[in-house]
Amino acid sequence: MILIDLFDKEVLKRLEQEIIDAELPMSFTNASKTTLNNNLSEIPESLIINQYNLKKSTQYQNIADTFNKYYTNLNKKWHEENTKILLYPTGFDGIIHKDANMDILTTITFINSDWNTSWGGEILCYSDDCKVVIGGIVPQFGKTFAFNGRQPHRAVAPIRLSSLMRMVLVGKELPE
Hints:
- 17% of the residues lie in helices and 27% in strands.
- It is of the alpha+beta class.
- Mean pLDDT is 88; it is low at 34-38.
């Protein structure tokens, strides 16, 4: 698990404004899909701007170029079709899940430029048996949290005092 500066913050601010202005269509989703408890796989856990709609962003080419460069520098391939923006409103905690049953690189970039850390919205990573929190990150504008997608993890919803949805840009490695 590492925390890096991957994206230009001006690009993220413009992307944030497009989301706020509702220029990118979104819908409810259970974005994790590969839950540890399959009985919960149909419960909506967030809003999503899928890759098709993300491509409508004026910032998409910069996002794609940045992801391609980052993954290529690590001798990995970026899974473009699995790139998305997830938006977590108050009360919508994510479900503990794995992105894959193999080692893949997952990146989560925080988009909110005015996020107050007291509002919550953390990403938590768990031990393989999901009984111990072994790491995580508090939302910080522009920071990218990179970790092994095989690791169980989840998004924590913002507290009700926040008037904002926590927004993240998700990228993943294309499994071989």
